[in-house]
Amino acid sequence: MFPAGKRPSVQGVSVLRRYERELLEVLGKGRSALHILQRGGGAATADESLRAAQMALQVANDILAQMELEVRTCEGDEDERAAADTLMDTCRQLVARYRRELGTTRSTALRAQLLGNGHGASSAVPLLNGEAAAAAAAADGEPGADAATVSRGQRRQMTDASTKLLKASRQLQDSKRVLTETEHLGADILMDLEAQGQTLEKSRDRLQGTDGRLQTGRGLISAMERTERARRLLYIGLIGVAILVLAVVLGRHFWPASKPAAVSAAPGTLQNHTKP
C-alpha cells in the first residue's frame, strides 16, 4: 500500500484526516445534487445538478490523489502506517460508492429521457450533453469511459511527477544538509588543529625551559664534582702532611737518643786502656 521506505507520520495522519473531512463535504454536496436530479424538475435545474455532481466527483478524485501523494511523501511508525492505510481504504470506498451512485443516476436519467421521447411526452430530465453522455457511458462501461481513463492517467502522471519532484527536492535538501555538516565538521577540525598547534607550541616552550634548567643543573653538578675532587685532594694532602710530620717527630724522638750513648762509652774505654 505504501512505497518502500515511506511511512506516514503523525503530521501526515492529521493531514489525511483534514482531507477526509473535505472529501466527505464534497461527496455530501454531490449527493445533494444527485437527489435533486432524481426528483426531476426543469431542464436547466437537472443539467445544473448533473454538472454539480460531476464536479463533485472530479474534486473527490483530486482530493484522493492528494491523499495518496501525502502518504507517499511522509514517514512514521507501524501504528501510524496502519491508521493511514485504513483511512485511505475508507476514502477510496467512499469515492467508489459515489461514482457508482452517479453512474446509476445518469443511467436512470438517460433511460427516462429516451422513454419520454419515445412516447412523445415532454420530459423534465435534460438532454445529456457530450460530457454527461461520456460520463454516463463510463458508468455503464461503454467506450465513452476513455475520457475518464485518460483523466485518471493524467492525474496519475501528475502525481508521479510530483512524487519525483519531491524526492529530488528531498535529495537536494539532504545533500545541502550533508554539505553544511561537512563544512561545520571541517571548521571544527580546523579549530582542533589550531588548538593542538598552540598546545604543541606551549609544550615546545616548556621543553626549552626544561632543557635550560637541565643545562644549569648540569653545570652546577659539574662545579660540585670539581669542588668535591678539590676537597678530596686537600684531604689527601693534609693526611700526607700529617703523616710526614708524624714520621719526622717520631724519627727525631728515637734516632737522636741512641747516638749520644755511643759517644759517652768511648772515653771510658780509652781511660781503661790508659791505666797501667
From TrEMBL:
InterPro entries: v-SNARE_N_sf. One of its GO terms (cellular component) is Golgi apparatus. Keywords: Coiled coil, Membrane, Protein transport, Transmembrane, Transmembrane helix, Transport. It is a single-pass type IV membrane protein. One of its GO terms (biological process) is protein transport. It comes from the Eukaryota. Residues 138-160 are annotated as: Disordered. The chain crosses the membrane at residues 233-255. Residues 138-148 have a biased composition (Low complexity). GO terms for molecular function: SNAP receptor activity; SNARE binding. It is found in: Membrane. The keyword Membrane applies. Its main location: membrane. This is Uncharacterized protein. It comes from Cyanidium caldarium (Red alga). The lineage of its organism: Eukaryota, Rhodophyta, Bangiophyceae, Cyanidiales, Cyanidiaceae.
